[in-house]
Task: structure prediction
Amino acid sequence: MHEMAVAENIIKVIEEKLAESGQKMEVKKINLKIGKLTCVEPAALRLSFEALSKETSLEKASLFIDSIPVTGKCNDCDKNFGLKELEFACPFCGSFRIEIKTGRELFIESFEIE
Amino acid sequence: MKKIPVLTDFLEANEQIAQENRRIFDKHKILVLNLMSSPGAGKTLILEKTIEKLRKDFNFAVIEGDVATSNDAKRLAKYNIPVVQITTESFGGACHLDANMVKKAMEKIDLSRVQILFIENIGNLICPAEFDLGEDKKVIVLSLTEGEDKPSKYPVVFRNSDLLLLNKIDLLSFLDIDLGLLLQNTKKINPQLFSIELSAKTEEGFKDWLNWLIKRYKSKSKKKVPPIG
Result:
């Protein structure tokens, strides 16, 4: 399952960060930024994380997912806009020459330990 | 509670391995293509015909990805080229190939003797698009039987691809499909996506695909190779 790979990576990155900082505390909260274009389904990610984090120092951690909307900029008329339908055209001038500015993030912003 | 910043893109691990793969491919001047599609769109037959027609001109290799079975690898093995089958059930049944799987497969191939490497990804239009494998180009194969709205339904894979192969064009007269609308929908998602209509079965349009491939190889290797007439 796709979200399994992502959950696995979250656990790996945070365990490495914990080892680096020499902390042996429990992870309570993990702050994620996930763009809507990434096709990562938050509910599936939570389930995968719960399954994979058992018996690790992340076992009691809750995932806080900041879902980032898709925004773009038109290279023809220079306007910025939000994209709700995933049709990559400028809603102002109709041009297809657009750049996606936000919506592709797959970030671990921070985690909190106690 | 103590907050520890991370700011890590958690596909970073995959990206790092993909870049290492890319460096190795570039060192050997191998053209690497990542083929993606829904299950049954015709990737394997396209590869069979491509290798059949060009094997006198190029040394091919294939990394074949499936959740289970080695059926596709067996089909390609008859061309006496290196074929490495990755079955992801040993990686937890993953629905896509990632850079680490490709790295392990590369260790089984003598890359010094390869000119063009095809990575046939798992039949899935969602996940493969997000995982860089170290390839030069991403090719999406769409069967005409899949309908006009596939690009709109699966924008990420269409947006990230470099070439669209519209396969099973021989079935056009039997289908209620608006080809113009399909191409329009593709352009809306990715105006830069180049498309070729072909049939792996009847070989209609196949020369266009072969010439695209030859041109990409020439560009990668800086070698002179004549096009197919």
Q: What stands out?
A: DSSP finds two helices and six strands in chain A. The mean pLDDT of chain A is 86. Helices of chain A lie at 2-21, 42-52. The first strand of chain A starts at residue 27 and ends at 35.
